[in-house]
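SUBJECT: A protein chain and its fold
Encoding: whole-number codes for local backbone shapes
RECORD BEGINS BELOW THIS LINE
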Amino acid sequence: MDSLVVTYGYLGFFILSIFGNMSLFLPVPYVLTIYAFGHQLDPILLGLSCGLGAAIGEFSAYFIGRGGRHFLEKKYGKRLDSAKLLIQRYGAFGLFLFAATPLPDDLLFIVLGLIKFDLKKALLACFLGKWLMCTIIAFGGKFSFRLVLRLFHETGLLGAVVGLIILALVIVAMLKLDWTRFLPSK
């Protein structure tokens, strides 16, 4: 594992993050690698390289939406333009929120491409969100990776069971969380 860091470094994580976010075609669990290598690399630089790569990778979905507009333009062009006016109000903030959390941002990018949402705004909001998420994950790895490794190594099957229970509790908590509370009121 150490040789991967030495050989590919931040550029390797940048490329991995691009492919990891082209999830419509090739899902790659890049987040796990960010966590795992957060204890060896500078978390801020790792978050920066992975955030930029992730933002670039997400735009595969944006361009699918942009290409799909061609097929929908005649019949639904006016409706798509109306949707664009509605989305422009909170689009960049919503995109940042989706990019910084585990919310399904691929679908949002397809819609943004369909309505021809401003590419620069979308890229900036996505980059900032992915950078924040990747940096937090890298810091998580920096401060807990060795402990987690030791826990699983020393406790064996018991550690794995406890880890799965904790994972299940985190997932349930995430699903029970009312995400609308974080949206601005109308």
In short: Residues 6 and 135 are 20 Å apart (CA to CA). The chain has five helices and no strands. The helical segments are 2-20, 30-37, 43-100, 105-114, 119-176. The longest helix spans residues 43-100.
